Amino acid sequence: MLSLLDLLRNRLASLLPSELKTTELHRLLSPHHHALLLTQRRATMIVNRVRLFAFLFAVLTPAWSIVDWMVFPFELWLHLALQRLLVCLAFAGVLLFYRPSGQLFDAYRAIGILFAIPTVFYITSHYLLGSYQLTQFSAAVGAGYAFLPFVLMAGLAIFPLTFVENLILALVLLMAQALAGYLSWTTLNWPSFAGAFWLLMLIAGVTGLACMSQLAFMIALVRQAIRDPLTGVFSRGSGEEILRLQWDASERHNSALSVAFIDLDHFKRINDTFGHDAGDRVLVQASRNMLDSLRSSDSLVRWGGEEFLLIMPDTDMTQARRALERLMQHGWGSRPDGSRLTASIGLAERCYDRSASPRDLLEAADRRMYQAKQAGRDRLGLIS
């Protein structure tokens, strides 16, 4: 049984982009284990594509009233035209007033509103059209309204969504189709309805694969953009972005935020004595040792050379000090000659230091790191 599961997992992994690791497969299923920067950039992309979708529908929805006016009775046309006007205004509101914030909840709300507007229009127009006796060309145009769920389902393919996210949205559209069938129960052509429902499910499967494929490429690209190529930890540019996001969250919730500068002691001697390749191996080993001791919510950044920045959200000064002491006990690794590798650390916390900005917080930690070096290295600096 286990070998069969391994075979299936390997087969699925072979269908993914080559840049995506097998261990990252679970990120395509649920958003719960996504990195902070991936979540922020994915949320921004979703909202931007929602606004693009809203612009398209805001333009095309009222334009179709011309066709309705040519084929439908005036009373039916008037009701449909009013509905289309409301839909157009709703889409215009999404386009004008919704802006990306980088928050996933806002992205969910945006995509929910986007698909709720035409879904409600589909159900109400379907019920309205069913109350009129349409013939010939007008009946053919009225039947065209039934294609709206297919357009919406196919439209999901433009979003980088996980399997769970796509499944929820697809189920909503399928339930809307089922509700429309229920409202026209007495006149429903069951073979035609069943065929359309099956086709809608098939499109849902295809769009699900398209969404996860987009997400897989996004994960790979974001990882390459935000990671230090040598150590695999966050690069300085992404670290600055993480710190800004965590600072904003800390201020918003009035919570603790600790940062620590970690500078490997006498690292220049390693490069001078044993060469840069040996120095690179020491950096990689030190990075892995640090990552092994960190929480999933912590972020380790290679700030420059042998200097690292550790960002610890929801962590006060006492908790951060204990965490860093455990890290020091765990060890940073060893130098090429086998001796113990040490580091000097400067710690600062937003509330404790009454920092007014992320720069103030960094400066406090940096100052204490240099004081730890001046005091003899291999120690934690806490007080300026």
UniProtKB/TrEMBL annotation:
Residues 255-384 form the GGDEF domain. One of its GO terms (biological process) is cell adhesion involved in single-species biofilm formation. Its cofactor is Mg(2+). The chain crosses the membrane at residues 50-71, 77-98, 110-129, 135-159, 166-185, 197-222. GO terms for cellular component: plasma membrane. One of its GO terms (molecular function) is diguanylate cyclase activity. It holds the Pfam family GGDEF. Keywords: Membrane, Transmembrane, Transmembrane helix. NCBIfam families: GGDEF (TIGR00254). It is found in: Cell inner membrane. This is diguanylate cyclase. Its EC number is 2.7.7.65. PROSITE patterns: GGDEF. Its main location: membrane.
